[in-house]
UniProtKB/TrEMBL annotation:
<dbReference type="InterPro" id="IPR001214">
    <property type="entry name" value="SET_dom"/>
</dbReference>
<dbReference type="InterPro" id="IPR046341">
    <property type="entry name" value="SET_dom_sf"/>
</dbReference>
<protein>
    <recommendedName>
        <fullName>SET domain-containing protein</fullName>
    </recommendedName>
</protein>
<feature type="domain" description="SET">
    <location>
        <begin position="49"/>
        <end position="297"/>
    </location>
</feature>
<dbReference type="GO" id="GO:0005634">
    <property type="term" value="C:nucleus"/>
</dbReference>
<dbReference type="InterPro" id="IPR050869">
    <property type="entry name" value="H3K4_H4K5_MeTrfase"/>
</dbReference>
<dbReference type="Pfam" id="PF00856">
    <property type="entry name" value="SET"/>
</dbReference>
Length: 327
């Protein structure tokens, strides 16, 4: 059993999420992947990943191997559709790709001209507003996901993204208790954009329902980004060194990785080397038609701790073989 897997998804600070309803959606799987076993990362070729998205017997959608996948094989990579550095990392991580940077100031910074140019379209909108109230709300409540909603709102206003960008993800429903806790953030976001004189026609999408729905999806599907700042081979050769080197720099939402279900003894995991681009790796040999699963939490926790974290943070009781065995 591997203990290399660490926190994969950030834990929500809102009440238990509503159950996720099974839904099958077609995806374009034209992500970078390997096309043969026993090849080095440098030899990886671009092509469809060896997976498919299908319905599981009990957990809604899932990701399955379309052929045998060897241990250590790069299954696919994924770029985030939405990411944001943590407030504590604003000046220490690229504001676009989350790569670690060295900066003496406290303002957002970029690791390269390419990232700066890529972020320009939505960052120009962000810079028009005063976010001090919104940031203070997030800091006082220990919240990180409203920052991602803010970024998506600015992307929609700028025309860089659709307001329906995350509609493919679950869940879409929000409890009354959750809505009450989200209201302050929604009001602060609206006030900041209104004071920035953003034309009303640009913010027609920004309703309470939109804010609540996007935040609900993000809190269930976001991953906490921990950068290894090392090669994958070094990561495997020294788990202890990996743990010391990693540091959470922000959070990100992906499409395909969001469809991976949880297992406390996973057969796959996600690593981040230099930035928010995710690499999905096989932890062991995976047979064709076998479901690929990752661990949403720290796999080294004991049975009771894992059950508590998963129930409170993700709204389900884990019935994986490891949990059923009492381990």
């Amino acid at each position: 059993m591997s203990r290399l897997v660490r926190y994969c998804r950030g834990l929500p600070r809102f009440p238990n999420p509503p159950p996720v309803k099974p839904q099958l959606l077609a995806l374009n799987l034209s992500t970078t992947s390997s096309t043969a076993e026993n090849v080095t990362p440098a030899d990886r070729l671009a092509g469809p990943p060896p997976i498919r998205v299908d319905l599981t017997e009990s957990a809604g959608r899932g990701v399955f191997a379309s052929r045998r996948i060897g241990a250590g094989e790069l299954i696919h990579t994924a770029k985030p559709v939405l990411c944001h550095p943590s407030l504590s990392s604003i000046s220490a991580a690229c504001y676009f790709c989350l790569k670690k940077v060295i900066s003496e100031g406290q303002s957002p910074t970029f690791c390269s001209r390419k990232c700066e140019d890529s972020a320009k379209v939505f960052y120009d909108v962000e810079k028009k507003a005063d976010w001090s109230e919104f940031d203070a709300y997030c800091r006082s409540q220990g919240l990180k996901y409203p920052q991602m909603v803010k970024r998506l709102a600015c992307q929609v206003i700028s025309g860089a993204a659709s307001a329906e960008l995350l509609d493919i993800l679950q869940p879409a429903s929000v409890s009354a208790e959750m809505a009450l806790m989200m209201e302050e953030g929604y009001g602060s976001l609206r006030r900041a954009l209104s004071a920035a004189n953003i034309p009303d026609g640009k913010t027609t999408f920004l309703s309470r329902e939109w804010y609540y729905g996007v935040l609900a999806r993000i809190r269930i599907n976001a991953f906490r980004i921990e950068l290894a700042l090392s090669s994958y081979e070094d990561l495997l050769s020294s788990a202890a060194a990996c743990v010391e080197a990693e540091a959470a720099v922000g959070n990100a939402v992906y499409m395909l990785p969001s469809f991976y279900n949880h297992d406390c003894d996973p057969n796959a995991h996600i690593v981040w080397i230099e930035n928010a681009d995710a690499k999905l790796k096989a932890l062991r040999d995976i047979e064709a038609d076998e479901e690929l699963r990752i661990c949403y939490i720290d796999a080294s926790l004991d049975h009771d701790a894992r059950q508590t974290v998963l129930l409170q943070g993700f709204g389900f009781k884990c019935n994986c073989p490891r949990c059923l065995s009492g381990d």
